[in-house]
Amino acid sequence: MEWSFQSAEELTAALRAGEVTSVELTDEAIARIERDDRMVNAICVPDFDRARAAARGADTARARGEDRPLLGVPVTVKESYDVAGLPTTWGMPPHRNHIPAEDAVQVSRLKAAGAVVLGKTNVPLGLQDWQSFNELYGTTTNPWDRDRTPGGSSGGSAAALASGFGALSIGSDLAGSLRVPAHYCGVYAHKPTLGLVAHRGMVPPPGPALPVDLDLAVVGPMARTARDLALLLDVMAGPDPLTLGVAYRLALPPARHERLRDFRVLVLDEHPLIATGSAVRAGVNRVADALVADGARVERHSPLLPDLTEAATLYMQLLISGSVARFPTESQERLRTRTAGLGADDRSLGATRLRAMGFSHRDWIEANDRRELHRHGWRRLFAEFDAVVCPVTPTPAFPHDHDPDLLERRIAIDGVEYPFFDQFVWAGLPTMPGLPATAVPAGRSPEGLPVGVQLIGPMFEDRTPLRLAELLERSIGGFQAP
């Protein structure tokens, strides 16, 4: 039997039943990577010798009666996570020899759960793109169309899952970096509530692995089924033992409902600042139709929804000001010159991004105060609804575009070009207030490319969108191999 596209849940059941060993699963996964990854280029740092040793250890542990959540299951890890003895570069050539001595907290949790780490997956330079290419490791392609991006920055992980290279992966998300690759590659991903999952050891090199809380950014699970997402989130979730974990323990509430008919869902397929492509709109409507058919309460509009234009503006202000602080892209003099050329009444997203590059601390505090008002608005909305269904991006995966100036790139939506960064508004909708969001497959475009949607849930009620994802998987189907 071929195991490469089985879920982690199915693999665990087979391991427990003695139908397969971890060594056999690991050898099969490695053989598939060695055969198929020449074209995909998802696994940028293989760790096969240690993976085989870990698999032997898992089989020995199971033979003596141990049973852990992921014992013996092959997985991959995004390159940006520290793995002791392997390079962590974030795709940046000056750090090609940066080799941490300790595992990131999430890598430690994977190993403690018994997972077998096959290696690390490719990322864009500095994790700053919806593509996955860099000078060190080359370009990762989309398994559905090699001329298109698999997404970023967790694009290597999504491509690996779609190709059968391990049952699970872990990634990160600041600007859709979990959800966009899942949408482009036809797999599942979950952006947890901000602060739910510790991310120590996921830091730009050569910085120390400190337990620092970052604004907007999260780490989270990727899988080929919704149930596997929930399984991996249970392994990952919880405070850092060096900080909040000293006093706090995790107690996620259960999903609000167990049946589709009981869910109250707001469906969005239009944004005031950018068009929604026909293929993505069809995917959103497919999910909406399935919800209606199963008896869920579905609405298309609500006065409780926070203003989408202001939400996008706030997201861009927080995203760009934070990113530029970590990865400066312009001299202050050049920035002042460009900003001075903006009209006082220019409120476009492009102008918002440019102004955000020069944000002061006072500017950031003002934006953060407005964010708190949006969070309150979302709390009121989720008193009336259980989830929001909306696009992840306006289009399926786009052709590779390696123009280094992201601000000058364009994205074509049904033949009309828009600034590349404008399409981030959908990914930013749950990111700005820190809400959980689950990306799920929702069909194919006319060209055969995967199309996904995201299910946004109430803060710290991550099990609600995950349960909805599982029920939708049963209703409309889920992952299909390329």
Automatic annotation (TrEMBL):
<dbReference type="GO" id="GO:0004040">
    <property type="term" value="F:amidase activity"/>
</dbReference>
<dbReference type="Pfam" id="PF01425">
    <property type="entry name" value="Amidase"/>
</dbReference>
<feature type="domain" description="Amidase">
    <location>
        <begin position="24"/>
        <end position="464"/>
    </location>
</feature>
<dbReference type="InterPro" id="IPR020556">
    <property type="entry name" value="Amidase_CS"/>
</dbReference>
<dbReference type="InterPro" id="IPR052739">
    <property type="entry name" value="FAAH2"/>
</dbReference>
<keyword id="KW-0378">Hydrolase</keyword>
<dbReference type="InterPro" id="IPR036928">
    <property type="entry name" value="AS_sf"/>
</dbReference>
<dbReference type="InterPro" id="IPR023631">
    <property type="entry name" value="Amidase_dom"/>
</dbReference>
<protein>
    <submittedName>
        <fullName>Amidase</fullName>
        <ecNumber>3.5.1.4</ecNumber>
    </submittedName>
</protein>
